[in-house]
Amino acid sequence: MADPKRILVVDDEDAVNIVLGELLRDAGYDVSIAMTCSEGISQMETGGFDLVITDKNLPDDSGMEIVRKARAMESGPEAVMITAYASLETAIEAMDLGARGYILKPFDDIKEVLSKVEKILAAADERRKMKNLIEQLRQSNEAAGERNK
Length: 149
What we know:
54% of the residues lie in helices and 17% in strands.
């Protein structure tokens, strides 16, 4: 059986961390919590997370910085932005930085949050499989080229 997917939740509100933590743990995920941008980045850099769900407004920096760092990491986690202050500009900026989704607080439908997480992780698995297949084909083609010399 595969290890559970690891999710990092970064939000400065205890209530959000409790709700998301319980929801995701009940769904079988391994969940870690951070309450600041710097703490989130520090945990993320230790590696092993499949997904980071971050609030946009954190006490020490913007959650956009977490999204930026996640995308810059080799095999970094997928990122989802959550915020209570929705705007089209914020959504576009988050997606441009590489966020795979955007969730508004308060969570009107907690099942929708879980569904979004599952879809993002499934799509990430598919991208990883495709990347591995491409790498295997590249190596196979290189080996075939060497044999034909």
